């Protein structure tokens, strides 16, 4: 795994003449067909590497996109060739009636993959409704399988709920269930070895992710996943407060409310940097990882 730290600003193709129709192709020839949607900045855990103990001052209700506004952006993206959507957060399952949004997104023509990244705590209750609404698969974040360490890292999380959530997701037919494990300054070798052994015994795929630091631009390719590999990046991100962001490691964001979804998509595509540099404007829990 290579670790890349970018301290200087790589030239973004801002101002590139990009097409009004057809696939979203950025200034470096990359086709953007994957939109990650953060639906809330709130969370029911407080992972030490992600949030402070008090959590985050929540965005005012009116700043958060409604489900219809999110679906409008997703429909506009699908018309420009986006095929994959992922719902994330904060914790997406704490947003009320999230299955309603899932149903709206699953109905969009051209969307062939609808996934979610979750901490899994509420999956036991919601997995079957999510599957019925059209969610295909989930990535569940698991940084340790030791109950005491889990409570420490998440500041109070109950790992029994996580395991019950993973079981519920499998029973509901969400497939595949993948695990995300972030190796952070709080991880021990036995946390990581434990997750690896659990994944093997449960026959679940696991992706190991190095802790990222947005303000300094520290990130790396994701072992077993597509993240962090700039030349192959196909992603755009929509934050819960309605900014289309070309890159996790960029301060650029284009308001879908102010510009309209089509124009925001066009500008975010034009603003995609060749490689990420750093982000000082938004924390991870607001952009969604
Ligand atoms: N709450 C959900 C969860 O934890 O899966 C979704 C949102 S969370 C921000 C998305 C992913 O980002 C999780 O897998 C989480 O572990 C990861 N993450 C959070 N902060 C990170 C950081 N500083 N570096 C790397 N990954 C991080
Ligand atoms: Fe919440 Fe996910 Fe951040 Fe943990 S990583 S605090 S579960 S948003």
- Structural class assignment: alpha/beta
CATH superfamily: Aldolase class I
Unreliable stretches covering 5 or more consecutive residues: 1-16
Count of individual helical segments: 9
Strand count, sense and barrel status of the largest sheet are: 9 strands, mixed
Proportion of residues in helical segments: 25-40%
The count of β-strands is 11
Radius of gyration: 18 Å
Strand content: 15-25%
The N- to C-terminal Cα distance equals 19 Å
Regarding CATH, which class?
Alpha Beta
Write the CATH architecture name.
Alpha-Beta Barrel
Side by side, the strands of the main sheet go: 7-6-5-4-3-2-9-10-11
How do the helices and strands follow one another from N- to C-terminus?
EEHEHEHEHHEHEEEEEHHH
Instruction: Fill in the CATH topology.
Output: TIM Barrel
Task: List the SSEs and their pairings.
Blueprint: E1 3-5, E2 34-38, H1 67-79, E3 84-88, H2 98-106, E4 113-118, H3 123-133, E5 137-141, H4 147-154, H5 159-171, E6 177-183, H6 189-202, E7 205-210, E8 218-220, E9 235-238, E10 243-245, E11 254-255, H7 256-259, H8 261-270, H9 284-287
Parallel strand pairs: 2-3, 2-9, 3-4, 4-5, 5-6, 6-7
Antiparallel strand pairs: 1-8, 9-10, 10-11
Helix pairs in contact: 1-2, 2-3, 3-5
């Amino acid at each position: 795994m290579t670790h890349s730290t970018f301290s200087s600003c790589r030239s973004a193709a801002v101002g590139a003449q990009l097409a009004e129709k057809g696939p979203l192709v950025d200034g470096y020839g990359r086709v953007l067909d994957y939109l990650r949607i953060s639906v809330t900045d709130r969370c029911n855990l407080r992972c030490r590497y992600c949030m402070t103990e008090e959590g985050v001052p929540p965005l005012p209700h009116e700043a958060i996109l409604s489900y219809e506004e999110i679906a409008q952006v997703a429909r506009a993206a699908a018309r420009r060739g986006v095929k994959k959507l992922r719902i994330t957060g904060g914790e997406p399952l704490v947003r009320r009636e999230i299955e309603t949004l899932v149903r709206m997104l699953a109905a969009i023509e051209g969307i062939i993959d609808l996934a979610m990244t979750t901490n899994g705590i509420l999956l036991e209750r919601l997995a079957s409704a999510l599957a019925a609404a059209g969610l295909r698969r989930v990535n569940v974040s698991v940084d340790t399988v030791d109950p005491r360490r889990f409570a420490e890292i998440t500041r109070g999380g109950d790992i029994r709920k996580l395991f019950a959530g993973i079981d519920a997701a499998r029973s509901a037919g969400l497939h595949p269930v993948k695990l995300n494990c972030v190796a952070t300054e709080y991880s021990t070798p036995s946390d990581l070895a434990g997750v690896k052994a659990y994944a093997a015994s449960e026959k679940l795929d696991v992706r190991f992710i190095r802790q990222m630091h947005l303000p300094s631009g520290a990130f790396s390719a994701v072992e077993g996943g597509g993240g962090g590999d700039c030349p192959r990046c196909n992603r755009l991100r929509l934050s819960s407060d309605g900014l289309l962001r070309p890159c996790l490691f960029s301060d650029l964001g284009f308001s879908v409310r102010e510009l309209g979804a089509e124009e925001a998509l066009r500008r975010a595509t034009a603003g995609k940097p060749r490689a990420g540099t750093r982000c000082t404007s938004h924390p991870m829990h607001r952009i969604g990882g």
